[in-house]
Amino acid sequence: MASEALTGTVLQELRRLETGPRGLTDAEATARLAAVGENTPPHPHAPSWAVRWARGLRDPFTAVLLTLGLVSACVASWGTATVILTLVAVGCVLRAAGERRADRALAALRDLVAGTATVLRRTDDTAPPRAHEIPLTDLVPGDIVRLVPGDLVPADVRLLRARGLTVRQAALTGESAPVAKAAADPPGPGARPESHLCFQGSVVVAGSATAVVVATGPRTRFAAAQRAPERREPSAFDRSVHGIARVLVRFMLLTPPLVLMAGAALRGRGLETLPFAVAVAVGLTPEMLPVIVTTCLARGAALLARSHRVVVRRLPALHDLGAIDVLCVDKTGTLTQDRPVLARSLGPDGRDDPEPLHWAATAAWWTLQLAELPTPDALDEALLKTEERGGGVDEEHGGVHDREHGAGYGEERGGGYGWACDGGYDGIAALPVGPGRRLATAVLAGPLGRHLLVTKGAPEDVLDRCDLPAAERQRLLGLAAREAAAGQRVLAVATAERASRTRPYTPADERGLTFRGLVTFREELTPGAPESLRTLTGLGITVHILTGDHPGTAAHACRDLGLAPGEVRVAAEGAGSLAGTATAAAGSTTVVARCTPEDKARLVGELRAAGHTVGFLGDGVNDVPALLAADVGLAPRGAVAVARESADVVLAAKDLTAIGHAVTAGRHSSANIASYLRVTLSSNLGNVLAMLAAGLLLPFLPMLPVQVLAQNLCFDAAQLAFALDRPDARALRRPTVLRPPSFLRFITGFGLLNAVADLATFGILALAPHGSGTLADQTVFHSAWFTENLLTQALVMLLLRTGHRRAQGGRPGPVGRAAALLAAVALALPAGPPGTALGMTALPVACHLPLAAVLALYALALTAAKSRHDRRLVPPGVP
């Protein structure tokens, strides 16, 4: 928007736009539409299938696999190259398909600002202006538009005339309270700098206005907010995978040269060992990782979409959901419905009293009737919809009820409210809210020829018009301040009797009033929000509220949601970092009020820098920077389009309890991925270490390259079962994070244990009697080591997975069945035709008992080491 709209006068703005109060002609509007384009916000470009597929190659493990596949092809190891490149292609296709499905599901949820706008236009220069509806997309700068309650502001506009106009712009600024707007020229002292402007995406709450369009389409403030930067920092999942990948890549790059140099130096074998060296490097790589990860995440995302209507737009975000330990939420529109509801009705003594509510509702009804406003404002609507709490409102008829007179309001009018005269009173005049005026008065005619003024509004303004001693006025102002500090919005109510007259009433007549009491309001909570947040805290997630609202309002909403506000800060006063609070105040909620969009993004970034995995839940344009800064951004279905496009996860329903289901699904997928990585990397590392040692000591290759490939294929195929596993419930109780240091310690320790078992097998085979497994019989040696490796891998699958949950009915789960099948293949394959083709043979009977002893000892050692590892992970005092 041009800066002149902020500082220039109305006349200067009309001249700049080459328009006038009578609007544009049809010809001018057509020419401008061709010049500036349609009034539509920019839409993100959906990537093609090829682009989505290519993005999958950026995954570090996928890139390593692709490199190894190409190297295998270069050394003519066609079987290895074919298998590896096929796995790379399948993993990328699965990921692209999942993200495309998510985008299609999100497209079905879009409800962009669309429709029509009321505009003044002329057929030619001499014709009078006429008001008519045009498509929103046809609006151009210079158009004169009319706004009434319930309208979405169709573009950025400068007010020409306004009458009692208030708009809700929470989607842009995060403020829950409606903002008063006026056609000041320029805005007066103390007024908001932009009080004469309305922005696209705002909603008219009350009043009416005529305005000139100053910016449309991509030039609006709403569109500027959508031009947010892409995610710059990797998510928790990306950081974890990259950290593990960096170590493995170094090891894989080091392995082939070591094998080649050792073969050349010790055995005189040079390039002939290159296929074996490549096979060893491939053996260390978790070939199935892209397929396992994508399958786990895609299954979890599909289940969420089908069962809980949650759309996961970026598959790795499901893992990030399972890993979050801090959830930052915006209050307005997410936890609260941006709609006030009655809290209390207080008499002058501060005690509950239905009379102020009765008079406030009476004033609201007659002001609505006599001022001819199309709809009530938010507070009036709350008054008119309130049901009785111990007296004051007639539950049966939905109207205000006076206990003394027993009279109610039964007349029906548009909007569903029923009201009539009370105790013989009838409305004759109204003085509504206006620019610079924070109160409204209804004038009623009584049965005895007297008039009754009923005034409601801001406590300071109403009390200034009451006939009260200074001390009493200060006491009542303190009472109102205490209610406001507790997060309530406060209305004061006063009345006055006057002699009947025929001349019009003016604001000057609002003097000498009798104070009746206060009516307070709180924000209405989003259905399901308290339950969902209790579920999240029960999952070990600390919740913080970052809002643009008043600190008291935010703290009160926090208590209504069942959260304990441990600390309330104001961003402008140096809120500082939340990193220490996230762990030190577990179970409590830190509230940061008066947050700008930049404050929210900064605080989220500080939490991530401190090592937390952060989720952010928001629904407005002002939340976009924080949504992009978080590890995983979440938005409800009712969020503005740019927030939905920026989010990684979209809650298709307003039921926020779906977040708990999404977190559990994320932990389920993450636990299975972690199980796969622990099993495959520890087993592969042990095998590689054993092969390197055997390659240095044996006069022949410890295993033929084709046998290494066959072993890897069998193990990889069995590990597909991890995508279908059901982890133990204990794995779902806390955030699941793949932390590279601890993860690498795990695979190093268990990999060395596996290498010891392999070397023990090597020793038994080396010392076996002649003819049954000596070094002279390479075929028996290869067959025995092939069988032992697959059997140890089957044990590792069973014992190192996350938890030991069995399927219903006591039957083994998918991992148990896959491990049993792998063991059967290990025993049967060498003796069959496939074994002969691979250069193996049936094992002599004398080999079975020593191998069984090694496997039994390995299983005992593995169980003991796993139990010790699990005990170290459990915090003190937790069973």
Give keywords.
single chain; Calcium-transporting ATPase, cytoplasmic transduction domain A; Calcium-transporting ATPase, transmembrane domain; Rossmann fold; 4 domains; eight-stranded mixed β-sheet; 29 helices; 24 strands; 16% strand; disordered C terminus
Plain-language structure description:
With 879 residues, the protein is α/β, with parallel strands linked by helices. It has four domains: 131 residues, Calcium-transporting ATPase, cytoplasmic transduction domain A (Distorted Sandwich), CATH 2.70.150.10; 275 residues, Calcium-transporting ATPase, transmembrane domain; 115 residues, 3-Layer(aba) Sandwich (Rossmann fold), CATH 3.40.50; 178 residues, Calcium-transporting ATPase, cytoplasmic domain N, CATH 3.40.1110. Helices cover 46% and strands 16% of the residues. Strands 1, 2, 3, 4, 5, 6, 7 and 8 form an eight-stranded mixed sheet that branches. An eight-stranded mixed sheet has the order 9-24-23-22-10-19-21-20, sandwiched between helices. Strand 22, helix 21 and strand 23 form a beta-alpha-beta unit. Helix 11 runs antiparallel to helix 23. The C terminus is likely disordered.
